[in-house]
Design goal:
By secondary structure, this protein is of the alpha/beta class. It folds into 3 domains: 155 residues, no CATH class; 291 residues, no CATH class; 132 residues, Alpha-Beta Plaits, CATH 3.30.70.1230. Helix content is 45%, strand content 13%. It has 25 helices and 22 strands. The strands form 7 sheets. Strands 1, 2, 3, 4, 5, 13 and 14 form a 7-stranded mixed beta sheet that branches.
Length: 687
């Protein structure tokens, strides 16, 4: 106990600096100073540490074998080029047909990430024109209103137990009362009673999409939850009753919704999306012909609408692709196979021989997310995979819903230490402070045990160790850093031949742990630098005092040793084996007889200065001057192992230095002959 008290008494300043460092870093963390860097380190763990869970770039087949429940139906470049209609596509003849085709192909949920909140413009024009036509025959040639046709398709889908979820938004108009409202699909479409889900963006401070909202509330309706598109899709997929509402468990930071246990981001109504990979349709522009990432199965809208009665713009690509997945239809390209045996074999492969087998379609029992992926419409997001493999890759907005949906269905949530990484001002996490405290104290104790340079090396090792742990727990493999470092330095051929050893398996469901990286590392650096700076300032102050006090008597090297050893000169001296030194000028009284007082002072100043410099350079300690005599000793107050040798070398070097002085005085020609022949006597005694 006494030893502990003594330790704290001696180290209290360093500990105080460390505690201040911990407080400062914690406050900076609290007010979001590290948030952007923390989010980038979070992205780094996706792109550089773990990689995709699905698609051809996945490091193993864990999630590929598990399969995904989401299929993407994209308005992509192919659709832009091949669709018989131009954008915006007619709701009845395009979107209504898409819903019918997917329903017949066995889709369980169709989630459309496109808003239909206003009446279809083209149909409105035609409706106004029809009212002006008097001829019934001409009026019958005008197509029906697209909104009504879309509503009919939704009703038909519901009759086959396929749920359609349409996009809605929380909109704000300052001059409206109340200013907030839900921008739902047009009232004609809503007559079919489709599910609706919000698609409002959930952005972090740097504009990236990492979290997904479970629901939103309007300011004038607190407590009423409007579910988002992804949650509504999962609700329909899992058959969660309409009467079920999300309930928050603050103790465990869990949103309970039916069978779902959604891990909340702090106390918010959002959760961290466990992104399964980069944009499904993105393709690297390299010399190697890599396929698109394929995070989720994806199909072009042009192919899903391509049945026998629809003609795409390019006849060469009009193969009635969707017909193979619809009952009672045989695509033209299969009919064109002349050999009956080959035709029958192809029909069996495609699952359309004999009775139609809906379970063999790629849409069977899936959530089909429909949205735009063509760049011209600018519905793209930055996700954690934005900089994957060093290439900037934007993700279609529809895929943020897809990743959120798959995260919920797989129950594959990220375990965030303290339940959140950023925006801590009103939801502070003491677990973060504990990590900061532990790492900062380790840095202090390392610095206390060794010199600052060695401690600096150890602090770097501490940072690397923490970095390795943070990355390792994200992939549930604490050897990740060792494997990746070895793979980086060893020859590529050796690494490829031993891939199973160097590769890291993908983390299993809910085994990824997200630990704050930047603030804890900052605490290590701030603690180290603050303590080193304090020591430097104190050392300079103490050295300045020692040199100003003893600089005329002790060499700079010995002063440094005294400081390093924290040794202070003692009154009365020290007992020990030392070497005494004495010197004086031979026949000194003769000099005083021939030299004027001023000349005598100048001569002695120059002589004593040069001799003292030699003495100090050999680690001697000047005791005093007695007229022309120099009294000194070696081995005190700082021990000098070879003090006898140093004393002897001092005597020899003083002899040489006196010769130099004599030559100098002779060249000046301003001194009497006795000065040119000056001799001195030196005595040494060890004991």
């Amino acid at each position: 106990m006494d030893a502990l008290k003594r330790y704290f008494h001696e180290k209290w300043i360093g500990l105080a600096i460390t505690l201040v460092s911990i407080f400062v870093v914690s406050m900076l963390h609290l007010f979001g100073f590290f948030d952007v860097l923390e989010l980038k380190s979070y992205d780094y763990r996706f792109t550089e540490v773990r990689g995709p869970l699905t698609g051809w770039a996945a490091s193993d087949s864990t999630y590929i074998n598990m399969g995904t429940d989401v299929v993407l139906l994209e308005v992509d470049d192919e659709a832009w080029r091949l669709m018989p209609e131009t954008w915006p596509y007619p709701r009845g003849t395009v979107w209504g047909r898409v819903i019918r085709n997917l329903t017949q192909a066995g889709a369980k949920v169709i989630a459309i990430d496109i808003q239909f909140d206003a009446p279809e413009t083209k149909s409105e024009y035609l409706h106004e024109f029809a009212e002006k036509i008097k001829s019934d025959d001409l009026r019958q040639l005008i197509p029906r209103h697209g909104d009504k046709m879309l509503a009919e398709a939704i009703r038909e889908a519901k009759s086959y137990n396929t749920e359609v979820v349409l996009a809605a938004k929380v909109a704000t108009e300052p001059n409206r009362q109340p200013p907030q409202y839900i921008a739902e699909p047009h009232e004609e479409i809503m007559k079919a009673e489709p599910e609706t889900g919000l698609i409002n963006d959930q952005m972090d401070d740097d504009g990236f999409s990492r979290r997904y909202a479970i629901f939103s509330e309007m300011s004038h309706q607190p407590g009423r939850a409007y579910l988002t598109l992804g949650v509504k899709a999962v609700k329909s997929f899992l058959d969660i009753p309409d009467t079920t509402v999300p309930r928050f468990d603050p103790a465990n930071h869990i949103w309970n919704y039916g069978d779902l246990r959604i891990k909340a981001y702090g106390n918010s109504n959002t959760f961290m999306v466990n992104y399964y990979g980069p944009a499904s349709g993105y393709k690297l522009q390299t010399e190697e012909d890599y396929p698109a990432w394929g995070t989720f199965p994806r199909y072009s809208l042009a192919y899903v609408i391509d049945t026998e009665d629809i003609d795409l713009r390019d006849p060469m690509e009009d193969i009635d692709w969707m017909s193979q997945f619809l009952p009672g239809q045989i695509p033209k390209w299969i009919q064109a196979i002349e050999d009956p045996g080959e035709r029958q074999e192809m029909m069996e492969i495609m699952g359309i021989s004999g009775e139609f087998d809906v379970t063999k379609t790629p849409f069977y029992n899936k959530i089909v997310v429909i949205g735009v992926a063509v760049e011209v419409l600018h519905d793209v997001k930055s996700t954690p995979f934005y900089n994957y493999l060093g290439v900037q890759q934007l993700t279609p907005g529809m895929e943020t819903h897809a990743n959120a949906i798959q995260t919920m269905i797989h129950d594959n949530y990220l375990n965030v230490v303290g339940s959140r990484l950023t925006n801590l001002l009103f939801d502070f996490q003491w677990s973060h402070v504990l990590i900061i405290l532990i790492l900062a104290l380790i840095a202090f104790f390392l610095l206390d045990m060794v010199n600052p340079i060695t401690a600096g090396v150890l602090v770097i090792i501490e940072i690397l160790f923490y970095y390795a742990v943070v990355c390792g727990v994200f992939v549930d493999d604490l050897t990740w850093f060792i494997k990746s470092t070895m793979a980086a330095v060893l020859p590529d051929t050796f690494v490829k031949n031993n891939y199973s050893f160097f590769s890291t398996a993908l983390p299993t469901i809910q085994s990824s742990l997200v630990v704050p990286m930047i603030a804890p590392i900052a605490s290590i650096l701030v603690t180290y630098l603050a303590n080193v700076l304090y020591r430097f300032l104190i050392e300079q102050k103490d050295k300045k005092f020692l040199k100003s006090t003893f600089g005329q008597y002790i060499s700079p090297d010995l002063i440094d040793k005294m400081f390093e050893n924290k040794q202070e000169p003692k009154l009365g001296g020290e007992t020990g084996v030392h070497t005494a030194f004495f010197s004086d000028i031979q026949s000194f009284s003769s000099f005083t007889e021939v030299l004027e007082p001023e000349k005598m002072v100048n001569l002695m100043n120059e002589y004593l200065t040069e001799m003292t410099n030699v003495l100090l350079s050999r680690n001697g300690t000047l005791d005093k001057y007695i007229g022309d005599a120099i009294v000194a000793f070696y081995g005190a107050p700082v021990p000098v192992e070879d003090h006898e040798y140093q004393a002897c070398m001092t005597a020899l070097e003083m002899k040489d230095q006196l010769e130099i002085l004599r030559e100098k005085w002779r060249s000046e020609g301003d001194w009497p002959e006795i000065v040119y022949n000056m001799q001195h006597r030196i005595g040494l005694s060890s004991g």
